[in-house]
Write a structure and sequence with these properties.
The chain is of the alpha+beta class.
Length: about 700
């Protein structure tokens, strides 16, 4: 990829949504973008890195109502949290803004009017999804059902997360309201449409000419064009938190119209404060625009957004690098599976730069998913970062301080080693440019390994007694390797690089300072900069249930229900009362003294007038119901999933229903992992394989 000397570069990451915390999947993208931006700055490019919170849409309005606060209060609180997370993960935005801004309102109206003037906007009556129970039109994210393309279940009303197909809410199969779970109806409403269908040829031409786009991404998008593009509904009915369409009382811009315009608005906000012109970035062919995104929003960024830009006279992106999804320990990120980690969760146990290094070691220009495997994570931090890079830096600078007063006089003229390192440096620069950070990391580690081998082979601790002058030169070359590593690793580990350069007593080093010319120089005090990742419980994921073995002490009739029992149970350190629908399946004598599995963190609830302080687990195959048992275990023993930590957080019954436990061969499984105690596997009575556990 050619350098852009004398030209501007604008880089963006996708806008995080303002209804919740950032998680490790989000951080994958921001770390990827930040590494690229820091590299560009390091080599002297004129680069601007902007982003913003995506603050509009019905989910914001509904979440705020649930919390009893205004949408403005919600997005302000989330904005503050996001900023802190970005700061702690060393994400170096030049401007981080919000889409709920005067600049975004201005540019949204400007672009809307330009599209309208160019004959690209029209209105028509359409059928919308309406919930009679909630008394509102349901936006995309508040109606769910089966995908009309691939039949995947539990998909939202705009885009399928499995096949990435885009569709209308009314296209969903067996739709239901995500708020109240009832079946919605269809109603007629007037809406504004953007003529996306008119851009097929222009978009196809742009995609084919753009040599930067990943082939697999280009293939997806060209196939969508080939199958025919439909005009795009860019309005939503109220109630809706967003910008009203000019001249309308209850019609708002669809969040996917004004959200990407937030890139322009954030640029404008920065430019106004730094005496720059926004058009120099968005209406200038000499500016290269990079949008870093995840594969779940490819449709919007490679079809809708470029078409909007084309239709309103703005500059098209130069490159849209797309990354895959993040899995954790081989599983999809999920709260119910215990594989969901917020940015703050990670920081509570790990160093942010460790995650930056781990991600960098796997990120490339290929569209592939990345797994955050904590065993692998620990090995890479301990064996590569600490034992290789950290070890070289400390042993060289420590030896120099102890034996030569920290002075670098001259260097060993080892031409072969210097040549090999210089070749690796060229590769690293190329791979940073081409977003193959994994290859850059490999070569950085290779240079560090060469430095360690050179230091070890020369044995300065012995040689110093025979030839102090030669030893000093060997330390001089070793210190120059360390200095070069401090620059090469800087985009990935900016704090480590800064501290290392402080030890070297140098500052503000740029890519051009990568050389072997650090001579007649005195370094500062050395110290260990990279600690190993300890073997702690950070490898354990949270299992949302807190399960214990309980013994049924007494079985009583429910006074108000024919199908329910009242059970007195012993949990070892406490006794509780449960209400269970087992009367049609068990005699009271069959249940007494049985060791069952109890959910102890379920919110207490009254069932037909009697309080149930938790629940027992039972399998249900449609014909039979059988309780889960652990006969060999002690009362109060923990029931768990290997690799997971039981949660102490109270959950609701609705949250419990989302947790999928299933029966196979008389045992119970959660995500293919067996439910067990320290003494045995949990068994289930009476039911057939495939039964659900409730």
């Amino acid at each position: 990829m050619a350098k852009f000397k004398g030209k501007r570069i604008l880089v963006t990451s996708a806008l995080p949504y303002s209804n919740g915390s950032l998680h490790c999947g989000h951080m994958l993208e921001y770390i990827q973008t930040d590494i690229f931006v820091r590299f560009l700055r390091l080599i002297g490019e004129d680069v601007l890195f902007v982003c913003a919170d995506d603050t509009h849409g019905a989910p914001i309005e509904i979440k705020a109502a649930e919390l009893g606060i205004t949408p403005e209060k919600l997005i302000a609180d989330v904005y503050k949290e996001h900023l802190q997370d970005f700061k702690d993960f060393l994400i170096s935005f030049d401007n981080y803004y919000t889409t709920n801004s005067p600049e975004n309102k201005y540019y949204s109206d400007l672009i809307f009017e330009k599209l309208k003037k160019n004959g690209l906007i029209y209105t028509k009556d359409i059928e919308v999804t309406y919930c009679e129970y909630c008394k509102r039109t349901l936006p995309d994210r508040y109606v769910k059902g089966r995908c009309p393309k691939c039949n995947a279940e539990e998909q939202y009303g705009d885009v399928c997360e499995r096949c990435n197909a885009a569709y209308k809410t009314i296209d969903l199969i067996e739709p239901y309201c995500a708020i109240c779970k009832n079946k919605p109806i269809r109603k007629t409403s007037k809406h504004y449409f953007f003529k996306l269908s008119q851009f097929s040829n222009k978009l196809e031409s742009w995609l084919n000419k753009n040599k930067n786009l990943q082939p697999e991404v280009k293939h997806f998008v060209l196939n969508w064009i080939k199958n025919g593009l439909e005009d795009w509904n860019i309005s939503r009915d109220g109630p809706y938190f967003g910008f009203k369409i000019p001249g309308e009382e209850n019609k708002y811009y669809y969040v996917w119209l004004d959200a990407p315009i937030g890139y322009i608005a954030s640029t404008d906000n920065y430019c106004k404060r730094h005496s720059l012109k926004t058009e120099d970035y968005w209406n200038n062919k000499n500016c290269k625009i990079y949008h870093f995104i995840g594969k779940d929003i490819v449709y919007f960024h490679l079809l809708f957004w470029p078409a909007i830009l084309l239709g309103s006279g703005f500059q098209l992106p130069y490159h849209i690098p797309v990354h895959g999804f993040l899995t954790v320990n081989g599983e999809k990120m999920s709260k119910s599976r215990g594989t969901f980690f917020t940015a703050r969760d990670f920081l509570s146990k790990h160093n942010a730069e460790h995650l930056r290094f781990y991600y960098a070691g796997m990120l490339s220009k290929r569209l592939s998913d990345i797994d955050l495997n904590f065993d692998d994570f620990r090995k890479k931090i301990n064996n590569e970062l600490a034992a290789n890079i950290g070890n070289l830096c400390y042993r060289v600078l420590n030896f120099l301080n102890k034996n030569f007063y920290g002075e670098i006089k001259d260097i060993d003229k080892n031409k072969k080693l210097i040549h090999e390192i210089n070749q690796k440096i060229k590769n690293i620069e190329k791979n940073y440019y081409e977003l193959n950070f994994n290859e850059a990391v490999k070569d950085i580690l290779h240079i560090s390994s060469l430095g360690n081998k050179y230091f070890q082979d020369n044995g300065p601790w012995k040689l110093i007694n025979e030839d102090k002058v030669k030893t000093h030169k060997i330390l001089g070359l070793s210190a120059n390797i360390v200095k070069n590593l401090s620059i090469l690793i800087q985009p990935i580990l900016p704090n480590f690089s800064l501290k290392l350069q402080n030890q070297l007593n140098v500052d503000n080093l740029k890519w051009q300072d990568i050389n072997f010319e650090l001579k007649n120089h005195k370094i500062g005090r050395d110290e260990i900069l990279i600690e190993k990742a300890e073997e702690k419980e950070e490898t354990k994921m949270e299992f949302p249930l807190n399960l214990k073995v309980a013994k049924i002490l007494e079985v009583k009739e429910h006074p108000n229900a024919d199908k329910l029992y009242i059970l007195d149970i012993d949990l070892g350190n406490e006794k509780r009362q449960l209400v269970a629908g087992l009367k049609e399946h068990y005699l009271s004598d069959e249940l007494k003294d049985k060791k069952i599995i109890a959910v102890t963190n379920l919110k207490y609830a009254k069932l037909r007038g009697v309080e149930s302080q938790g629940m027992l687990l039972a399998g249900d195959d449609g014909a039979n119901v059988g309780v889960l048992t652990a006969d060999k275990s002690n009362v109060g023993d923990k029931v768990y999933i290997e690799g997971h930590e039981n949660s102490a957080k109270e959950i609701s019954f609705d949250e419990f229903l989302k947790i999928k436990l299933a029966v196979q061969n008389g045992k119970v499984y959660f995500e293919n992992k067996e439910l067990k105690t320290d003494k045995e596997s949990v068994s289930v009575e009476k039911v057939k394989d495939g039964a659900r556990v409730r």
